[in-house]
Amino acid sequence: MGRIDDVLKVSGHRLGTMEIESALVSNPLVAEAAVVGRPHDIKGEAIVAFVVLKGARPQEATAIKKVVEDLRNWVSKELGPIAKPDEIRFGDNLPKTRSGKIMRRLLRSIATGEEITQDISTLENPAILEQLKQAIK
Fold first, then answer.
1. In angstroms, how far apart are the furthest CA atoms of the chain?
2. Alpha-carbon gap, residue 96 to 107, rounded angstroms
3. What's the confidence (pLDDT) of residue 1?
4. Secondary structure class of 32 (helix, strand, coil)
5. Cβ burial 65-82 (10 Å sphere, 16+ → b, else e)
6. What is the rounded end-to-end Cα distance, in angstroms, of the chain?
7. If the chain, 137 residues long, is cut into consecutive pieces of 10 residues, what is the mean pLDDT of each piece?
8. Phi then psi for 19, rounded to 5 degrees?
9. What is the pLDDT of residue 3?
10. What are phi and psi of 89, to 5 degrees?
11. What are the angstrom distances between the C-alpha of 49 and each of 36, 119, 121, 124?
12. How many alpha carbons lie under 13 Å from residue 47 in its C-beta half-sphere?
């Protein structure tokens, strides 16, 4: 039994963020992933995935599009087409506390485009927030 923010309601389907994260991490390209929702006018919530790749992040637009499409298709194959992330952002790492907990509230703020006003003093690497904001979608 998880918390309510661990469940997304996408087009009337209830999806667990943990299942989507597990599907992404099961791909050989992905080292780490975190999934959050953001409001969507038609679907209710859109799935936004923040992904850390095992190798170097692709820099060319065509390479990025290919990796994004590969990951979306992977999730579709693993969980079904309703679970495809609407947006995938790549970063060198994820915003974590010094104890290693991913700060999903900060990722949710980035996904919705809100200004981060919460306390970020406990972050291991505060510079990652700016990188994820600027990440190509």
1. 41
2. 10
3. 47
4. strand
5. eebbeebbebbeeebeee
6. 31
7. 66 83 94 92 89 88 92 94 91 89 88 82 82 70
8. -65, -40
9. 56
10. -115, 140
11. 7, 22, 24, 20
12. 30
